[in-house]
Amino acid sequence: MDAYTEFAKVYDLFMDNIPYEEWGAYLKGLLHENGVDDGLVLELGCGTGTMTEILAEAGYDMIGVDQSEEMLEEAARKREESGHEILYLCQDMREFELYGTVRAIVCVCDSMNYILEEEEVLGILTSAARNYLDYGGLFIFDLNTEYKYKEILGEQTIAENREESSFIWENYYDEDSHINEYNLTLFIKEHGDHYRKYEETHYQKSYSLDTIRKLAEMSGLELLHIYDAFTNEEPKVDSERVYVVLRRPGQPE
Asked: Is residue 1 part of a domain?
């Protein structure tokens, strides 16, 4: 079953423990520190548009790309409420297309972990470098680390019970393939006291820092930083998330 179909309806409900404003402040800091203070910014894997809205509020002209129509429907509702002029495109981020270039591309909340082949990660970075980033433009993305999958998530079952809906989230991490399988069972309240059961399976892959360095070099992007998430420090052995900051070489036009 496709991921983020029925889950889209309750995604924000179950993600209300995520400090998006803090994450957004960190991301805006990375953009500012590396010279992108305004202009067009693309978010790949934008989901329900929470981070897209935060960046739009900061003054960036936002484009959001996601392959889930259901997630984009939720994003469109937020856009209607905020009044921000955000362009949403229903595209697979592995094959995204724009009409021109942007000053920065961001891909956060472990969206890049959903790309399960090195060649596809390379394709995204290369497409950005050759076609869609301004000279001097940034590509910033985060990644869940192998440590997080092996030591925190792998073989764990997480469950949460709410009035509107409940979920059971089972994790299985394969150390050979570096793929974490999420089996998600949802119970969503639909009519009165009646709940409907839905099931989705998600897959994410961990990438070593050496692999990221290699792919960045192959893509033609310049690797500026790899940070332990939400700091300006080098990743640690037990870092659960890292941020990668890349730049297209050349002077801004």
From this structure: no
The pLDDT tens digits for 113-168 are 999 999 999 999 999 999 999 999 999 999 999 999 999 998 899 888 877 788 89
Structure confidence at residue 1 as a pLDDT band (50, 70, 90): very low
In total, how many domains does the chain have?
2
> Which residue type sits at 71?
M
- List the CATH number of the domain containing 198: 2.20.25.110
| R_g over Cα of the chain | 18
Q: Identify whether residues 83 and 115 lie together within a single domain.
A: yes
Model pTM? 0.93
Q: Tell me how far apart the alpha carbons of residues 141 and 111 are, in angstroms, rounded to a whole number.
A: 8
CA nearest neighbour of 188 among 7, 4, 17, 48: 7
Nearest to 78 by CA among 53, 106, 45, 44: 53
Residues 133 and 245: beta-carbon distance below 8 Å: no
253 lies in some domain: no
Contact 241, 144 (CB under 8 A): yes
Residue from 55, 58, 53 nearest 83 by CA: 53
The answer to whether 156 and 123 are in contact (CB under 8 A) is no
* 228 and 182 within one domain: no
List of E strands, the chain? 40-44, 61-66, 87-90, 102-107, 133-144, 157-161, 165-174, 179-191, 194-205, 222-228, 241-247
Which residue range(s) make up the domain with 201?
A: 148-205
Residues 163 and 195 in one domain: yes
Q: The CATH number of the domain where 59 resides is what?
A: 3.40.50.150
Nearest 10 degrees: CA dihedral of 118, 100, 82, 35? 80
In degrees and rounded to multiples of 5, residue 27 shows phi and psi of: -65, -45
